[in-house]
Amino acid sequence: MRALLDASFSADFGEVHALVGENGAGKSTMIKILSGLLRPDAGTLRVRGSQVDFRSPHVARALGVGTVFQELTLMPSLTVAENLFLRNEPQGRARLIRRRELAPRAREVFARLGINGIDPDELPPALSLAHRQVIEIARALLRDPEILFLDEPTSALAEQEVEWLFRLVRDLREQGKCVIFTSHRWGEVADLADRITIFRNGEHVATRRQLTEGEAVTLMTGRTIDRMYPERPPLAHDAPVVLEVRDLRGEQMKGISFALRRGEILGVGGLAGQGQRDLFMTLFGARKLAGGELRINGQAQRIRKPSDAIRLRMGIALVPEDRKTEGLMLPMSVRDNLTLAVLGRVAFGGVLKRSTEQAYVRRAVQRLHIRTTRPSVQEMATLSGGNQQKVLIGRWLLAESDILLFYDITRGVDVGTKHDIYELMMELVAEGKSLLFYSSETEEVARLCHRVLVMREGRVAAELTGPSTDAEAIVAASVREDAA
């Protein structure tokens, strides 16, 4: 299976160039080749008209190439400062690293780039996904590259951090640098890119200065999507409450109460870092509950760990924001990841029955249109981001969970896959499932949900419902001090 096939592409200095396409279209592979991480089977690379051989990342960096990869590369056992200056540390006599200078120099770099709130002495696992992404970006900029590749740099960033990055990118363009980025958020592409190149199935399809989202989707997928956001199934007025939360308290929660009904998509909005993640993790048993009451179908329940949530009669399932580290076993096969939550149903006397397991896998692959060649042997790490996300969702569909906690599930997936996920959400609630849904894209929350809870400082600041619930209303409720 070829990732790229006769793919041609060019960008200019003093230009911001966007590479767009579905997951698996070849964008990340192209960037890895142009960064020296992968060797092409054929073809030529030229910089300023001269042919080059990026035979390794070291050679690419020496020729002025900097890259922020989609997969985070920070060393978990090194501090932020040590990661920032990795292979570029301040040295003294005998080329010994001056460790005392690392943290002060990191603070200088952060100040120069306008980065706040990150402790240079902290370890990456203690940081938010957004802060880890910011460090990756800062590390690439530290080397002052002439050509900067940004592979899905905003997928983990909140709105204010996206604005910070875009200011830096525009400054680089003014300095005559070349910036090439990928993004599945069409608004970012339209706002930032001077030119847009479309890839489909590993091939170059078109390069344009201007494209509408509809035109781009057609070029990317080969199909027309009439409406990006599907129609929500109506919520019955007498729909029973399946999940009730009363005065929930935790690490970042300060008394949250709400009710989720059968067949409802209940949105959770608000600025990033207001307790949304703590809420989802606590409901799934991945965070300790400090206080409050949780009821499923009117029955009080105590969830101390994820297995408790999964085993409940209705079943609570979580699809987290960071699928690679919190949801999937990347070295394991697609099959093993899909059936992880249903081993009790495909094993008899402690022995797996492969025919039963394969039937489960086929059902998920067909329903979610997962692109996989041989699910029984293909490693998860070889799938595109969108297909990885589909596998994670498929795991919980096979488990027949009735309460689904979807936390930023469209992060880092292409526009075609987003539409597929939106359609799936509507199918699920039509079947009687109940969804608690958070997205870093406020427009998604507004367009997909029956109601929206807006969180601020660990509390529900407002509840929005009806046709007037739009992105602007959610943002306004997020910052309004008198919201109630």
What does this structure look like?
The protein is of the alpha/beta class. The chain has two domains: 15-77 and 123-227, P-loop containing nucleotide triphosphate hydrolases (Rossmann fold), CATH 3.40.50; 229-479, Rossmann fold. It is 34% helix and 21% strand. The protein contains 18 helices and 20 strands. The strands form five sheets. A six-stranded mixed sheet has the order 4-5-6-1-7-8, with helices on both faces. A six-stranded mixed sheet has the order 14-17-18-11-19-20, with helices on both faces. The protein is globular. The mean pLDDT is 89.
Task: Give the structure's gist in a few sentences.
The chain has helices at 27-34, 57-62, 80-84, 102-113, 129-142, 159-174, 186-192, 213-221, 276-283, 306-311, 323-326, 334-338, 343-346, 354-368, 385-398, 415-430, 442-448, 471-479, and strands spanning 15-20, 45-47, 50-52, 65-68, 147-151, 178-182, 195-200, 203-208, 241-249, 254-261, 265-269, 291-296, 299-301, 316-319, 347-348, 351-352, 403-407, 434-438, 451-456, 459-465. It is of the alpha/beta class. It folds into two domains: 15-77 and 123-227, Rossmann fold; 229-479, 3-Layer(aba) Sandwich (Rossmann fold), CATH 3.40.50.
